[in-house]
C-alpha cells in the first residue's frame, strides 16, 4: 500500500528541518566507522587491560583471531521487577557468542530506578534526569571502544530512552535491544484503580490498599498496564531494534531465553555478513516517524512526547509536538489496553500484540516499509510472532485479531485519530492524552485552584475543599493548576498520585481537569490533564500568572489551553516567583543536590528536557 500522504508530508518536513544536524551526525558516524579495527589502533597496554578479565579462550579469539566482540550494557538490578530477569542474560549471550566463534563482555551497567517505587516521593525528582545519566553511563561503557557490536538490556520508563540516546553516540556500531517481558497478569487493572479511588476517599484502609497493590505487582517482569515501560517495547518493535516479537514474551518462558540468544545471533549476523545496519542509520527520520505512529495507534505514554524528541535529537533529527499532533490527526487508534481499556499487555499479546498493530499500520500506509532494521527481512518481519518448534525459533503470520475489544484492524479502529492532542493558547503549549478520557470530558471550563505542589492538592482533596469548590461554582467543577513541576523547577516528576482523587471527583459528576508543567504517569488517563505545559512556570511561563478563580478552558476538541482573562489585564499581570522554600527543598536531600546542574541547564519539555545541550 502507498504511504499515506500526511505521513509522507510530515516525514518530508522532518527530513528538511533536520538536514543540517542529521548530515553532521552522519558525517561523524562515517569518521568513526572509517577508523582501523581496535586491535590495530589501540596500544598494547590498552588491549591487555581490555582482555585481562576474559577467559583465556575468549582472550585468544579477541587478540589473535580478531573475532567479533559484543559489548553488553545492562540495567540489571533486583529493585525493578522488570529488570530482575536480566541477571541471567549476560551468561546466555556469552554462551551463544562462543557457539558462533565470537565473544561478549559486560561493558558496563547503568542505573535503573523504578517510578512505581518513587512515585509521590522526593526520589521522583531524580527520575526524568536519570534518563540522561543512563545515556551517559551507556556512553561510558561503550567508550572502551573494543566492540564490534552491542546488546542493550533494559525495559522501563527512562531506561530504554537513556540506553538509546547513549547508543546513538556510537551510531557506527550495529546494536540490538533486549527486553525481559511482562509479569503474568495479576489483579485486573480496573480493580486496582477502584481500590485506589476507595482508599483516596477513606472507604478502605491501608491494609486493603496494600493487599491490592501486592496482587497487582507480584513477580519478576514488567508491570502489565500499557504505561511508559510497555510503550517503550512497542516503539522498539516499530523501529526494528528488537528481535521481532520479543516485547511481550514473559520471563521464565523457554521462548524468552531463546529470543535472548537470538539477539546475540542477530547482532553477530550483521557483523559477520557485513550487512549495513549500524544503529545510527537504522534510527533515521522514517524510523522515528514509525515510532511516533505506533505510539499514537496504541494510545501510548505521554512521556514519549519528551523522550522521543530527545532520542531523535541524539541522531541529529529534529521533531516537535506539531509533528505528533499532525500524525495524531490521521493515525487511527487500534488498541484498548489499560489505561485506555480494561485489557493488560498479556491480553494484548494474546489478541495479536505488536505484530498485528505493525501489520495493520503497514498495510494501511501509516508506517514506512522501506527502512533498515536489525533483521535482514526488514520491518515486515515485525508483523509476525515467534514460537519454539522443538529447540528452534520460527516466526508465523500474526493472523486476525483474537479479540477486537482489545486490538482492531485499521479499517475498524476504536477512533479515526490517535490518542494524543496538542493544546495551545495563552497558557502555553501542552499535550493531553484523550484516548482514555470520556467523550463528555474533552472540554472543561471551570475556575482554577492553584497549587504549588502535589501535596497541597492532596491536602485540599482530603479536607473536602475541592469538592466544596466544585459544588459552589456554576460549572460544577474545578481546574487544578499545579505549577513549579517542570524540568528547571524540580526535575519534572510524574504526578500519578493525583489521579485517584481527581478520578473520585470526576466519578461524582464534577467537571475536573489538571493543568501542570509536570508529567503524568504513563498509567494515567481518564481524567483530562493538560501536561508538560511549556514554558514552565519556573522559567517565567504563563502558569506563573494564574490565580485562584481565573476561569481556565481545556479544550481537546479545538486544541485550546486558555485562561479566560481580559487580554490587557493578563498582559499586565505580574508572574509569581517560585517560593524560596520550594527552591531550597528541591536542591537538598535524597541526592537532589547532585542534579542541580541538570535542572539549571534543562531545555523545555517540548525540546526533550535535554540537560546536556
Automatic annotation (TrEMBL):
Cofactor note: Binds 1 [4Fe-4S] cluster.
Keyword annotations of the record: 4Fe-4S, Carbohydrate metabolism, Gluconate utilization, Iron, Iron-sulfur, Lyase, Metal-binding
Assigned GO CC terms: cytosol
Pathway given in the UniProt record: Carbohydrate metabolism; Entner-Doudoroff pathway
PROSITE patterns for the chain: ILVD_EDD_1, ILVD_EDD_2
Coiled coil: none
Annotated GO biological process: D-gluconate metabolic process; Entner-Doudoroff pathway through 6-phosphogluconate
Cofactor(s) this protein requires: [4Fe-4S] cluster
Binding site for [4Fe-4S] cluster: 156, 223
Catalytic activity: 6-phospho-D-gluconate = 2-dehydro-3-deoxy-6-phospho-D-gluconate + H2O
Ranges for domain Dihydroxy-acid/6-phosphogluconate dehydratase N-terminal: 67-380
GO molecular function terms attached to this record: 4 iron, 4 sulfur cluster binding; metal ion binding; phosphogluconate dehydratase activity
Broad EC category: lyase
Family: Belongs to the IlvD/Edd family.
UniProt xrefs under HAMAP family: Edd
Name of the protein in question: Phosphogluconate dehydratase
Amino acid at each position: 500500500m502507498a504511504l499515506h500522504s500526511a505521513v509522507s508530508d510530515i516525514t518530508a518536513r522532518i527530513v528538511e528541518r533536520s538536514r543540517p544536524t542529521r548530515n553532521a551526525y552522519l558525517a561523524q558516524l562515517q569518521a568513526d566507522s572509517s577508523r582501523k579495527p581496535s586491535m590495530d589502533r589501540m596500544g598494547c597496554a590498552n588491549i591487555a587491560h581490555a582482555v585481562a578479565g576474559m577467559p583465556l579462550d575468549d582472550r585468544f579469539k579477541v587478540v589473535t583471531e580478531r573475532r567479533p566482540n559484543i559489548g553488553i550494557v545492562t540495567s540489571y538490578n533486583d529493585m525493578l521487577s522488570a529488570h530482575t530477569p536480566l541477571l541471567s542474560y549476560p551468561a546466555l549471550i556469552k554462551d551463544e557468542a562462543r557457539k558462533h566463534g565470537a565473544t561478549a563482555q559486560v561493558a558496563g551497567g547503568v542505573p535503573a530506578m523504578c517510578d512505581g517505587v518513587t512515585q509521590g516521593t522526593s526520589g521522583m525528582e531524580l527520575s526524568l534526569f536519570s534518563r540522561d545519566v543512563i545515556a551517559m553511563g551507556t556512553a561510558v561503557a561503550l567508550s572502551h571502544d573494543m566492540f564490534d557490536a552491542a546488546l542493550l538490556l533494559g525495559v522501563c520508563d527512562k531506561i530504554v530512552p537513556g540506553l538509546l540516546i547513549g547508543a546513538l553516540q556510537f551510531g557506527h556500531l550495529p546494536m540490538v535491544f533486549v527486553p525481559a517481558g511482562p509479569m503474568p497478569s495479576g489483579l485486573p487493572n480496573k480493580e486496582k484503580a477502584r481500590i485506589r479511588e476507595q482508599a483516596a476517599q477513606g472507604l478502605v484502609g491501608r491494609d486493603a490498599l496494600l493487599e491490592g497493590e501486592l496482587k497487582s505487582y507480584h513477580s519478576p517482569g514488567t508491570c502489565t498496564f500499557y504505561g511508559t515501560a510497555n510503550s517503550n517495547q512497542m516503539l522498539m518493535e516499530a523501529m526494528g531494534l528488537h528481535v521481532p516479537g520479543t516485547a511481550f514474551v514473559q520471563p521464565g518462558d523457554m521462548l524468552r531465553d531463546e529470543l535472548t540468544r537470538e539477539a546475540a545471533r542477530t547482532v553477530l549476523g550483521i557483523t559477520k555478513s557485513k550487512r549495513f545496519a549500524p544503529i545510527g542509520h537504522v534510527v533515521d527520520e522514517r524510523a522515528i516517524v514509525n515510532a511516533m505512529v505506533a505510539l499514537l495507534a496504541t494510545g501510548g505514554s505521554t512521556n514519549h512526547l519528551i523522550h522521543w524528541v530527545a532520542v531523535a535529537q541524539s541522531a541529529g533529527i529534529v521533531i516537535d509536538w506539531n509533528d505528533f499532533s499532525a500524525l495524531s490527526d490521521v493515525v487511527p487508534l487500534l488498541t484498548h489496553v489499560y489505561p485506555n481499556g480494561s485489557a493488560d499487555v498479556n491480553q494484548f499479546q494474546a489478541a495479536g500484540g505488536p505484530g498485528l498493530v505493525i501489520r495493520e499500520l503497514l498495510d494501511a500506509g501509516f508506517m514506512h516499509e522501506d527502512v533498515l532494521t536489525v533483521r535482514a527481512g526488514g520491518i515486515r518481519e515485525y508483523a509476525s510472532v515467534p514460537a519454539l518448534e522443538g529447540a528452534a525459533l520460527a516466526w508465523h503470520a500474526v493472523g486476525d485479531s483474537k479479540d477486537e475489544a482489545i486490538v482492531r484492524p485499521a479499517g475498524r479502529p476504536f477512533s479515526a485519530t490517535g490518542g494524543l492532542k496538542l493544546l495551545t493558547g495563552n497558557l502555553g503549549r501542552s499535550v493531553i492524552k484523550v484516548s482514555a478520557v470520556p467523550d463528555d470530558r474533552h472540554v472543561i471550563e471551570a475556575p482554577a485552584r492553584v497549587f504549588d505542589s502535589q501535596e497541597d492538592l492532596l491536602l485540599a482533596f482530603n479536607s473536602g475543599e475541592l469538592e466544596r469548590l466544585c459544588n459552589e461554582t456554576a460549572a460544577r467543577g474545578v481546574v487544578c493548576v499545579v505549577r513549579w513541576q517542570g524540568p528547571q523547577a524540580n526535575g519534572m516528576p510524574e504526578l500519578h498520585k493525583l489521579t485517584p482523587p481527581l478520578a473520585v471527583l470526576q466519578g461524582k459528576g464534577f467537571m475536573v481537569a489538571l493543568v501542570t508543567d509536570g508529567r503524568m504517569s504513563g498509567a494515567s488517563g481518564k481524567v483530562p490533564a493538560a501536561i508538560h505545559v511549556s514554558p514552565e512556570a519556573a522559567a517565567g511561563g504563563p502558569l506563573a500568572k494564574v490565580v485562584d478563580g481565573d476561569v481556565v478552558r481545556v479544550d481537546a476538541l479545538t486544541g485550546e489551553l486558555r485562561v479566560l482573562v481580559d487580554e490587557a489585564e493578563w498582559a499586565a499581570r505580574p508572574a509569581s516567583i517560585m517560593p524560596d522554600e520550594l527552591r531550597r527543598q528541591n536542591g537538598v536531600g535524597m541526592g537532589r543536590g547532585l542534579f542541580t546542574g541538570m535542572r539549571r541547564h534543562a531545555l523545555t519539555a517540548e525540546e526533550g528536557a535535554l540537560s546536556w545541550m
